[in-house]
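Example record

The entry below shows one chain as it appears in the dataset: sequence first, then C-alpha cells.
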Amino acid sequence: MALTECQKKFVDEYLIDLNATRAYKAAYPNVVKDETAAAAGARLLKNVKVSEYLAKRIKDRERRTEITQDKVVNELAAIAFANASDYAKVIERQAVFITKEGKRQPLFDENGKPLMVSDVKLALTDSLSREQKKAISVIKHGKNGIEVATCDKVRALELLGRHLGIFSDKVEVSGLQVEMSKLDDLIKQVTGEGG
C-alpha cells in the first residue's frame, strides 16, 4: 500500500523541525488538539511505510546537502574536546620595565619588590589544525585586546552523550515488586482515605 498525500506531507513537515505534533497538524489541518496530534504523529512515525519513506528522505537530504550524522558528530566532538590552551597560553610572570633616558628600568611595587605581570600569548590561527579551528566561535577586538571564545563545550558534550545514549531523560525503576492490594493500601494511607 502506497503512502497517502497526507502521510507524505507529514514526513515533509516532520523533516523541517522533527516535531511530530506540528507536522501532523500541518498534514491534517482538521486536527486541532495537540494531544491528538501528538499521539497520531507518534503512531505515524511507527508506521512501516512512513518510516521507510522518512529514512529515504533523510538519505536523499544527506546526499543533497552532504551533511551526514558523522559530520555533525565530528563537529560536536571538535568542540567538546577542544583544549583552551591550544588557543591561549599564560606566559610566566615577568618583571615590568619602563624606558627612561634610553635605559630600561624595572618598576617596583609599594614594598620595593619588582612589579611582575603575567601575560597571555594567543596562538596564530594559521598554526591551528582544522579540528582546532572548528571549536572557535569568536575572535574579535575587545576593550582589553583580542578576545578568543570557543563554542559551548558542555552543550557539545551533552549532545554527544545523548547521541551515544549515555544520558537518559527516563527514570528506570527496577526490582520493585509490590502486590496491587498492598499498593492500594499504601495509596489510601497517604491520601488519608480508608481507616
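Notes for this example: The chain has a mean pLDDT of 81. Residues 48-65 form the longest helix (18 residues).
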